[in-house]
Amino acid sequence: MEKRQFGKTGYEFPILSFGAQRIVDEHNCTEDEAIQIVNRAIDEGITYFDTAPTYSKGQSEERLGKALGDRRDQVWIATKTGERTRDGSWRKLEESLKRLKTDHVEEWRLHAVGTMDELDRIFAEDGALKALIEAKEQGIIKYLSISGHTNPQVQLEAINRFPFDSALVALSAADHFIYSFAHEFLPKANEKGVAVVGMKLLGLGRLADWYEQSIRYTFSLPVSTSIIGISSMEELEKNLAVARNFKPMSDVEMLTFLKEIMHMCTPEILRWKAKDWNNKEEWAVR
């Protein structure tokens, strides 16, 4: 698989990375299957794994920790805090480390920051950012990150206020048409050397009829890597095949594809763009 630089960190990753939100009972994936899928992914060169404490009440982190075992030093773990305070975030990190069976994570990110008010709370004197900075100073985490699905202006403001190492943002082809991170956020992030991780590539499965094209669209953007939620070995193999054979979309291909899926830009499909989106787990990373 093609590899790309991860911002200014000096690391590089394959274009395909692992969204661990779906290796859980809720998505009909058993613990044994989860362990097999994670190890197969590592065998095939995937090294970047994204999870969060809110994914199935910690089961995603727990299974990822069990699956990695003595291969922990072969991978990069990114987990999150949905808390907006320092103390709340520290509690979440301590719980995450226990479930992941590790004493550190490579990347800790502020989860799904959707409004300027949330951002202000995070940047307050007792806000979550303080926990991120302290954890980095203590060597518990290495890199600081933020994620967002809804309004790219929030993430733009975040990277203007603070030198985040990375950002995880919604970059499906359907996102191209409204509050577009590809148009509004990606150029500035690249200019600042912020590693950008794409998510929502398949639009929660709604773009399944354009499976390969949807993945190729995001891979064709100037992102560092992209995560796709995986709940079965079949899905993993399918994604690996697209990544191994990836060729960037030409301008004509991309325009033709976008015209074809333009009708998918609706509140029912782009739920994460809605003002009342409340971060339900079933709307999480895919």
What is the count of DSSP helices, taking H or I runs of 4+ residues? 11
Distance between the termini: 20 Å
The share of residues in helices is 25-40%
Question: From the helix content, strand content and strand pairing, which structural class follows?
Answer: alpha/beta
Average predicted local confidence, pLDDT = 95
- Rounded to the nearest angstrom, the radius of gyration is 17 Å
Shape: globular
Strand order of the largest sheet: 3-4-5-6-7-8-9-10
Oligomeric composition of the shown chains: single chain
> H/E order of the elements?
EEEHEHEHEHHEHEHHEHEHH
- Low-pLDDT sequence parts: 279-286
Strand count, sense and barrel status of the largest sheet are:
8 strands, parallel, barrel
Strand tally is 10
What does it look like?
This protein is α/β, with parallel strands linked by helices and 286 residues long. Helix content is 38%, strand content 17%. It is built from eleven helices and ten strands. A hairpin with a 6-residue loop joins strand 1 (3-5) and strand 2 (12-14). The two termini are 20 Å apart. Residues 279-286 have low confidence and may be disordered. Residues 16-217 form the NADP-dependent oxidoreductase domain. This is Aldo/keto reductase. It comes from Paenibacillus radicis (ex Xue et al. 2023).
Provide tags for this entry.
single chain, 11 helices, 286 residues, two-stranded antiparallel sheet, 8-stranded parallel β-barrel, alpha/beta, 10 strands, disordered C terminus, 38% helix
